[in-house]
Amino acid sequence: MADGSSETKSSNQMWGGRFASGPDAIMEEINASIGFDKKLYAQDIRGSIAHATMLAHQGIISAEDKDKIVHGLDTILSEIDSGAFEFSRRLEDIHMNIEARLAALIGPAAGRLHTARSRNDQVALDFRLWVKEELQKTEKALTGLIAAFLDRAEEHAETVMPGFTHLQTAQPVTFGHHCMAYVEMFGRDRARVRHAIEHMDESPIGAAALAGTGFPIDRHMTAKALGFREPTRNSIDTVSDRDFALEFLSIAAIAATHLSRLAEEIVIWSTPQFGFVRLSDAFSTGSSIMPQKKNPDAAELVRAKTGRVNGSLVALLTVMKGLPLAYSKDMQEDKEQVFDAAESLELAIAAMTGMIRDVTIRADRMKAAAGSGYSTATDLADWLVREAGLPFRDAHHVTGRVVALAEQKGCDLADLPLAELQAINSAITDKVYGVLTVEASVASRTSFGGTAPSEVRKQIAWWRARN
Ligand code: ARG
Fold it and tell me: How far apart (Å, rounded) are the C-alpha atoms in residues 176 and 456?
């Protein structure tokens, strides 16, 4: 504290005579949250200003006291912003640190701020405001990532690559189509974010300790002042639940899992064996001993951050699962999980957006790989159904024999002489070569949501109109 006097006071001493001395060192250590909840200072001050303004409007405190409180809180805000504020662990948390400083600055009027509220609704408010802002940031970040993918998808609507199942070459697809798969995933993540913002858009302040208050407060007024749609409807639920934090963590875990799969693909694609992409220097590192190496560290770290985010979700679920209503101090453990997950997710999205924008696509390598592994075998089977009238099961069998022949000769399907194809099935004509190339294969898959460049372009346009 700037004046030094409240430095020696503990939070217990601030509220009365029941506690003869301050908590001992271990109690202070386990109890204090200021080390991490100082992050909530701006939200705490905003909440207090809205609360004091409402108290004065309702005639619960005088306009004069309200002015002193608001002025004092503004001063504290700039003290914290500028780094001049001294946080004290003896004062436990951000709420008591600010209140103690307010008392030092404005005297007895400070004691009126806590009328008709409790730290229980105060912390629920601060944290909800913080999570809501974080969700809004996440929404923006995801929009940026989707935009990066749309640009790459457009650029590579016709670039063929192998599509995989079991990481075995399955059928040729376009790289644009593969990019659009991620657009769908991150688009759903963003929809979840929007939905969560709507869910949590209710103001907790005024629920007080758990039962509401006898003071004639106006919770609709504070809700409006703080940018919430309306006040929460049950004071017990308001101070008990943290599902807004759990929802944030679940969304973060799903999005991080999507990012991790993408990171894993980048790691695989950037190996010399695959060589589908070349990472920019900005998102890779060299080896201290092997000069030829370029390591996809950023992608690996995105993959690893997912472990932290998923861990945070499980940690908070576990904290909450045994708690009787209403508030228990266990809930103080909600913040670090959310802060850590938020930081990891923000960083992971930013790194991935950068990588997607920067990465060099090696279309020649993708195309060569797309043609290997008999990836157009299904096209041959489909052709036999369409052009030669075979039942699909028979066509599958014929195609199997054709693949075995190519394997035996060590060549691609398109390199097999017509006579040898006809020896397997006499209905085959030279028109079959038209479907055996990877370009013909992808161009033919025009079903809604399919990989044909024409269809991919349609889906890009649909997303562009919504991003
Ligand atoms: N630091 C506390 C938390 O984060 C604030 C609420 C304290 N409330 C209480 N009844 N002790 O949960």
Answer: 7
Give the residue from 120, 104, 103, 121 showing the smallest Cα distance to 112. 103
How buried is 324 (Cβ within 10 angstroms: 0-12 exposed, 13-18 middle, 19+ buried)? exposed
Q: How confident is the model at residue 132 (pLDDT cuts 50, 70, 90)?
A: very high
Q: According to the model, what pLDDT value does residue 4 have?
A: 41
Pocket perturbation via mutation, ligand 1, pick of 44, 91, 119 by most ligand atoms within 8 A of CB:
119
Choosing from 15, 44, 120 the residue with most ligand 1 atoms within 8 A of its CB, the one to mutate for a pocket test is: 120
What is the mean predicted confidence (pLDDT) over 3-16?
55
Instruction: Summarize pLDDT for 64-91 with one digit per residue, the tens.
Output: 999 999 999 999 999 999 999 999 999 9
CA–CA dist 418, 79 (Å, integer):
83
Radius of gyration for the alpha carbons in the chain, expressed in angstroms and rounded: 31
For residue 130 the two structure tokens come to: 């913080």
Cα 332 to averaged position of ligand 1 atoms, centre (Å): 6
Provide the whole-model pTM.
Answer: 0.90
Lowest mean pLDDT among 21-35, 179-193, 213-227, 356-370: 21-35
Residue 417 has a pLDDT of 94
> CA 331, CA 243: separation in Å to the nearest integer?
11
User: Ligand 1 — pocket residues by CB below 6 A?
Assistant: 33, 37, 93, 119-120, 123, 327, 329, 331-332
Please write the tens of the pLDDT for every residue from 21-78: 556 888 898 999 999 999 999 999 999 999 999 999 999 999 999 999 999 999 999 9
Is pLDDT above 50 for 110? yes
The answer to whether the beta carbons of residues 276 and 369 sit under 8 Å apart is: yes
Would you please indicate which residues are annotated as catalytic (active-site) residues?
166, 287
Residue 184, C-beta contacts closer than 8 angstroms, at least 6 positions apart: none
Return d(Cα 231, Cα 221) in angstroms, integer. Answer: 9
Report the relative pairing of strands 160-165 and 168-174 from DSSP bridges.
antiparallel
Contacts of residue 304, defined as CB under 8 A and 6 or more positions apart, other chains included, come to none
- How far away, in angstroms, is 274 Cα from ligand 1 center? 53
Distance 47 CA to ligand 1 centre (A): 16
Which residues are registered as beta bridge partners of 172?
A: 162
In this predicted structure, the answer to whether residue 10 has a pLDDT above a threshold of 90 is no
Are 158 and 176 within 8 A, CB to CB? yes
Does residue 201 contact residue 231 with C-beta atoms inside 8 Å?
Answer: no
Distances (CA, A) of 354 to 112, 279, 342, 456: 50, 11, 18, 23
Q: What band does 1 get if pLDDT is binned at 50, 70 and 90?
A: very low
End-to-end CA distance of the chain: 48
